Amino acid sequence: MLRSKELLHYPKTTPPRLYLILTYLLFCGKMQEQSINDVPKRNDHVPKLTMVSVFREETNMKYFGCWSCKEDVARDFQVDVKNLGNVLMAWYGSGDYCGSAFVLFENDGQLYEAHGSHCSCYGLEGQWDPEKTSVEALAHVLKDGYMISDSYDYAEEARKALGRVLKRLK
């Protein structure tokens, strides 16, 4: 079984990103102990995104890309965490010196979405401007829109997560 003390001795061939994700999941209690043989090993023919996706799918995470928690979202948008309500899904993808973000949250029974993007000069600061939304509007955007663009990291996994959230809300 993979336990915290064994993580310290995980094979040196483990990609740094995967090691960080394993550490986060294990210490935050979001990953059940499992056999070390079940954990993907480094394979240069398998993109890192695939290895990351395995853990996010299994743990049903709602933060994607550059974010791993509500505090990350608040920090990058430079808003108080209280403004985020109940985050249902949040994505911050990076591209070539740029980024794009989408946050879906619930506050007092109402759905809200917030967006942001930037070039290499700045970040998401000053762009927090949530708009009321609906399951129908989000379903339309998911099917025919460009809200979560493939130009950025983790876009596919974020769209899948949004689809799962919409199914739960229907």
Give a description of the structure.
The chain has 170 residues and is an alpha+beta fold. The chain folds into two domains: 4-59, no CATH class; 63-169, no CATH class. The chain has six helices and five strands; from the N terminus they run H-H-H-E-H-E-E-E-E-H-H. The chain has helices at residues 4-7, 16-27, 48-59, 70-77, 135-144, 155-169, and strands spanning 63-65, 86-94, 99-107, 110-118, 131-132. Strands 1-2-3-4-5 form a five-stranded mixed beta sheet, with helices on both faces. Strand 1 (63-65), helix 4 (70-77) and strand 2 form a beta-alpha-beta unit. Residues 1-10 and 29-59 have low confidence and may be disordered.
Relative helix content:
25-40%
The amount of beta strand, in percent, is 15-25%
Number of helices: 6
- Global Rg: 17 Å
The number of strands is 5
Secondary-structure class: alpha+beta
Sketch the major β-sheet: 5 strands, mixed
Jot down its keywords.
single chain; 170 residues; alpha+beta; 2 domains; 6 helices; globular; disordered N terminus
Q: What is the strand and helix layout of this fold?
A:
Layout: H1 4-7, H2 16-27, H3 48-59, E1 63-65, H4 70-77, E2 86-94, E3 99-107, E4 110-118, E5 131-132, H5 135-144, H6 155-169
Parallel strand pairs: 1-2
Antiparallel strand pairs: 2-3, 3-4, 4-5
Helix pairs in contact: 2-3, 5-6
Summarize it.
This protein has 170 residues and is an alpha+beta fold.
